[in-house]
Amino acid sequence: MRLVFLYGQVASGKLTIGRALAARTGLALFHNHLVVDAVAAVFPFGSDTFIRLRERFWLEIIEEAAREGRSLIFTFAPEPSMAPDFPSRVRTLVAEQGGETLFVALSIDPEEQERRLTLGDRAAFGKLRSPDMLRALRPDFDRCMAAMPFPAISFDSGTISPEDAAERIAAALEALA
Prior knowledge:
Strand content: 15-25%
Mean pLDDT: 91
Structural class: alpha/beta
Largest sheet: 5 strands, parallel
Order of helices and strands: EHEHHEHEHHEH
Distance between the termini: 10 Å
Radius of gyration: 15 Å
Number of strands: 5
Number of helices: 7
Helix content: 40-55%
Strand order of the largest sheet: 2-3-1-4-5
């Protein structure tokens, strides 16, 4: 089992690149907002119950995929309500099942990030869409990104197409095999 742990800040293109990678490789795409939105439908974002359930659902799905040998792509946005050791616990969980985790980091120029916030496709999920709120939260997001595991691959998603990023990630996955 191989887990592509695709992480980056808000509007860095995680889902877009994840979709391109899934189309190229046939891997399942586990977009973090599937769980975030489900839990947030019942519990307020950031509440203790929200944080506990979100993490539990993510971990259980990843663990079951690893147990069944189902490789997948997981998108992740580091932010302050996440336990700092979450990525390392995911890596350990996957390794315990004989799998490998490939950390892929996306960065984005702040101006491009703010431009992307206003795109209509962000409304499909409960994603951050306010440039003012992003500016207020950016120092926290930057701190969380800096605490992530060192990536095997990193991209500035404003300078590479999703298809080219997917091609490079797929090549790295092939090298793991």
